Amino acid sequence: MKISLKQILAVGALAVASTSAFADTALPETGNGELVLYVLDTTQNTVYARGLGVNMDNIITTQQITSNGHTVAAQPITGFDLGTIGPDANMNAFLGTIAPSDNVEWAVLGGAYTGITNTLGAMRFATTTTADLSAGTTLSNSNLKGSFVNINGVQTTLNGFIGTGVADDMASTQPNGIYGQTGAGYPTAPAWFGGGLTNAITGLGTTANFYLLATGGGSTGAKAVAYSMYSLTLGTDGTLTMNAPMSTTPIPAAFWLLGSGLAGLVGIGRRKQV
User: 10 Å Cβ neighbour count for 25?
Assistant: First the structure.
């Protein structure tokens, strides 16, 4: 029986065991959860997962969101760079088990909250997606409170498979680790995020948009806040790279003044020759 990321998240949501803040990956319910990379071979029912050693406060804090206020369009987050994270031994082993015809999906997920609330910035979630949220998001506070909180259950189960007991150590699962029992059955789950947002990206060597979503204040139906972290690429060799948008470097005013001066000198030289 094939599994999907939606099904995995549903299974993870059933995990309710109490886990301390010092578990393998920092859980969203601690108020400062850790980003996690998931790679799924849905053909073989195997999954690789790894904490990335980056917490939500490293991206943007609740206080910073409160200061920014609630805008319609997605705001860019400056000063945060995940950089490039190369594959570890478990990733290399996992890649070695994937057949060319296998279907592979991946996602980067993370969350942070200390209560289920609509308060501006109180609940924060990071996710890859194929959607373009530059003009804003259709997701509401209700979507975040009802669906994204399942990330906590997923990471709780993940921590039981990593087993180092050290938070933010970027440890990962074995190639046939979390949810990877061959032939296991998984329950059917509804759309995990709602609002038409798909977080799983198909295929290695692909690029996904990367956003942070936060509760936007107001009513349950009010729109969530969206922040753009540009995009992530998961290479065929398992390297995860954060891509920044191309920017045009402004030419300093002093350069134009220098150019004007040189042009004037050329003109004077020509008049002397005449």
Answer: 28
Three-class SS of 195-256? CCCCCCEECCCEEEEEEEEECCCCCCCCECEEEEEEEEEECCCCCEEEECCCCCCCCCHHHH
Residue with tokens 């729109």: 223
Q: Write the single-letter amino acid at 73.
A: A
What is the biggest distance separating any 2 CA atoms in the chain, rounded to whole angstroms? 92
Distance CA 137, CA 155 (A): 25
Task: State residue 255 phi and psi, 5-degree precision.
Answer: -65, -45
Could you tell me the pTM of the whole model? 0.77
Distances, alpha carbon 256 to alpha carbons 28, 218, 247, 263, 268, in Å:
51, 49, 20, 10, 19
For 222-243, b/e burial (b = at least 16 CB within 10 A) is bbbbbbbbbbbbbeeebebebe
The tens digit of pLDDT for each residue in 28-67 reads: 999 999 999 988 887 887 888 899 999 999 999 999 999 9
- The Cα–Cα gap between 211 and 131 comes to 10
Which uninterrupted H or E stretch holds 120?
Answer: none
Dihedral sign of CA atoms 77, 201, 5, 53 in order: negative
CA distance 67 to 56: 17
